[in-house]
């Protein structure tokens, strides 16, 4: 592993560990987007687990489509460049964890340990459920020219995206060959 890639791995591990909530992107079966947020815990396989109300739009979307996008993004106040905020996105499949199962109970304990007594209310509320968001692929952006595909079984591998940058934008030419804006 090159030193550059080693630094990216260290940044990735530290970045992902620094969040308690995620931004959640879902869509209706008709494709209408919904953005939301929710606290989460990670399971032993690195999946994001969320404890959400069945009354919320995003929960219904997850249950109907089985798809989600997860975003972890650097706070605006912490970034030196608003266009280059550190961020980590994952495309995920969503599946419900069976209420009362050993897996469900273990996740409830993890939520309780992380978020406190409010979780006991969720545990007793019939409409609350745990949904596992299993990452299929990801993207970690550290800054300009520092973007990495995230993959592997446990989303542990990074691959630097090196496609020559964003390219150069040229102004459109007129029919006479002159560039728009020239006389």
Q: What does this protein structure show overall?
A:
By secondary structure, the chain is α+β, with helices and mostly antiparallel strands. It has one domain (3-160): Electron Transport, Fmn-binding Protein, Chain A (Pnp Oxidase, Chain A). The protein is 25% helix and 36% strand. The protein has four helices and nine strands; from the N terminus they run H-E-E-E-E-H-E-E-H-H-E-E-E. Strand 8 and strand 9 (157-160) form a beta hairpin. The longest helix is centred in the N-terminal third of the chain and has 15 residues, at 3-17. The radius of gyration is 21 Å and the shape is globular.
What structural keywords apply?
9 strands, Pnp Oxidase, Chain A, 4 helices, globular, nine-stranded antiparallel beta sheet, 183 residues
* Rg: 21 Å
Name the poorly predicted regions. 167-183
How many strand units?
9
Structural class: alpha+beta
CATH topology, by name, is: Pnp Oxidase, Chain A
Number of domains: 1
- Give the CA-CA distance, first to last residue: 53 Å
The biggest beta sheet is recorded as:
9 strands, antiparallel
Mean pLDDT: 89
| Overall 3D shape | globular
Strand content: 35-45%
The CATH architecture is Roll
Give the % helix.
Answer: 10-25%
Given this structure, which CATH class is correct?
Answer: Mainly Beta
According to CATH, the homologous superfamily is Electron Transport, Fmn-binding Protein, Chain A
What are the secondary-structure elements, in order, as H or E? HEEEEHEEHHEEE
């Amino acid at each position: 592993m090159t030193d550059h890639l080693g630094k990216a791995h260290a940044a990735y591990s530290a970045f992902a560990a620094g969040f308690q909530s995620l931004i959640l992107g879902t869509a209706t079966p008709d494709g209408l987007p919904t953005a939301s947020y929710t606290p989460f815990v990670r399971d032993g396989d690195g999946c994001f687990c969320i404890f959400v109300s069945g009354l919320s739009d995003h929960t219904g979307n997850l249950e109907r489509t089985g798809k989600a996008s997860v975003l972890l993004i650097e706070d605006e106040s912490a970034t030196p460049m608003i266009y280059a905020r550190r961020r980590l996105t994952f495309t995920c499949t969503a599946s419900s964890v069976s209420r009362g199962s050993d897996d469900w109970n273990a996740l409830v304990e993890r939520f309780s340990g992380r978020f406190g007594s409010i979780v006991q209310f969720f545990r007793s509320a019939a409409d609350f459920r745990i949904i596992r968001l299993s990452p299929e692929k990801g993207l970690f952006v550290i800054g300009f020219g520092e973007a990495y595909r995230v993959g592997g079984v446990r989303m542990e591998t990074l691959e630097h995206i090196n496609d020559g940058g964003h390219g150069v934008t040229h102004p459109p030419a007129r029919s006479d060959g002159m560039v728009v804006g020239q006389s």
